[in-house]
Amino acid sequence: MREPTNLIPSSIDESLLLRVFEMMELGGIGSIASALGYLRDAGIDPVASETQPVLVEILFQMLECLEQNLDDSALFAVVAALDPLVAGVASDMLVMANFPDGNIHLSDLGDGSIMLLAALYAGAGKLSEAIDVLRRSRFERAGELFQNAALKRMFLLQKEDDGVIQLLFEQTLDGLDHPEVWNILPAIVEKFPTLISEIAKLLDNELKFYTEFWSVIHALCVAAEGDLERGLALLNPIATAHSQSTMVQGAYFHIKGLLNPQNPAFDLTSRFCSLPFDELDVLDGKSHLCCASWLPQSVGDLAEQPWQDVWNSDTAQSIRASILDGSFRFCNKTACPKIADNKLPRRDQLVASSGRWRDVIENFRTRLANAPERVNLAYDQTCNLSCPSCRTGKVAADAATRARFDKLQDEQILPLLRQVKLAFITGSGDPFASKNFRNLLDRLGPEEYPDLRFQVMTNGMLFTPREWDRFPTLHGRTAFLRISLDAATGPTHELLRRGARWPVMERNLAFAAELRSEGLIDRLEISFTVQVDNFAEMGGAVDLARHYCADNISFTRLTNWGTFTAEQYAQKAVFMPDHPQHREFIQRMRDPRLRDPISSLLDLSQYAPAA
């Protein structure tokens, strides 16, 4: 600890010091500020040797305040107003009290001590040391309250707009959603009133470096300043052009939440999603813990790693941590049907009702001992159709690709499925068009896989009685048969399902209905992807689903899988507010048939009228 400098004679009237202690007995920030003000008005140096007991008491009082509230803005204002010499001595005293040998171990300090130490460093003019303390501690600590308070302080300790801009860049450039940053933007733009105009200058970069990134930040800052409608209007075209971006869609979700503060669907902090703890989607060259359009981050490649390593990879554990901390930062929040339709369960309800989820949630368990319960086999894109919504042309695996998939199935998929309850075949093409999937189904008989059941997804064109008879593996073991049907009439179906024939679809739907009535499949479901060319047929599709005895028909927004340019997708995305036919789409969403119990609106539910 540095030797304090006496600025006044060493003899101080003890009555003055007693008065200071009496003030602080009241507790709280006000008493600290009053005590410091009293010393200043009396001409007493707080770092004089005689007054250091007062400074020690002030530090204790500050720590008590921070134990109650790590983001105590009034306390931080008091610290910021300290003379730099006083702040420096106080930081030395805090360090020496905890580390007499002078070796600082931040992990040994409490959350409040970290926050106070950083504030004192900044008050002493040591901004880089203050930011370093907060940055390192955020890396080491998982507590959500501390994480958010430390991040906010890192921003508010900055001196200029440039420092804030650099920190925004560092914190959000990973392309993920960052609600912890979006939530503190109001405090940031309030402290830095010229920040928005400085960010706006970055949008005119001639080289277009990160222009869209800064456009998102700019829209969020405009909303944070209070102009929510303008912020959303700025973000609308970006959200349409980047429908697969978790950052863009997260920002859109955030502003929509600010516009609808009473809607619980926009508050995920107390919600939970089981999918990353239960499901593994195996694609070609990558794997996901949910549908790739809802959770785009890959967790590994089963062709290169054992499934156990992929299932518990660092990325997989980070994704699970984002569910447990309530940020859902890896999720596409406007595309996920459970988020959009407010179907995620509350964590406290799961803790109360399930021993398994209580263990996962209370112990922040991200590394799992169990295998996934469900596996989506989506590595072969072979399909008999070439629907414009998911591909530009017909896809069929060549001999080399099929050999690669055979190896994957032999070495990884077949052993994994022995521990799995439900296999989803397929989310990538059509199982009856794929030689690999047909071969796989032949090998998954009940003798070797007695507990395995199936979810079969097909476009229906090949789902004939003859094909069904070729796969006894599926008989009585198909939990879900899902047929993708993006129309209620022949012309629209054949337009959107390139290569399909409506009379064939009608015959095969009738056959699927027979299987359902005979109990050979547990559920018959229909999926309908909504876009400009078919939104007028949504109500008719419900009638069609009823006619063929479907248990459910689900409606989802068109996803841009890279098959459309941004301009083409904008023309198709009738559900986006900027689309010229959006008002007509909203009218169609009022169709009472869409409220049929078998109808699920999923990520379109926000456009339906309130019940």
Description of the molecule:
The protein is an alpha/beta fold and 611 residues long. The chain is built from 29 helices and nine strands. It has helices at 14-24, 28-41, 52-68, 73-80, 84-98, 111-123, 127-140, 144-156, 161-172, 179-182, 185-191, 195-202, 211-224, 228-241, 246-259, 275-278, 307-311, 314-324, 337-340, 347-353, 355-362, 399-417, 435-442, 465-469, 490-496, 502-518, 538-547, 566-572, 582-588; strands at 279-283, 286-288, 374-378, 422-425, 453-458, 478-484, 524-530, 552-557, 599-600. Strands 2-1-3-4-5-6-7-8-9 form a nine-stranded mixed beta sheet. A hairpin with a 2-residue loop joins strand 1 and strand 2 (286-288). Helix 1 (14-24) runs antiparallel to helix 2 and helix 11 (185-191) crosses helix 13. The longest helix has 19 residues, at 399-417. It is elongated and about 100 Å long. The protein starts with 13 loop residues before the first helix and ends in an 11-residue tail after the last strand.
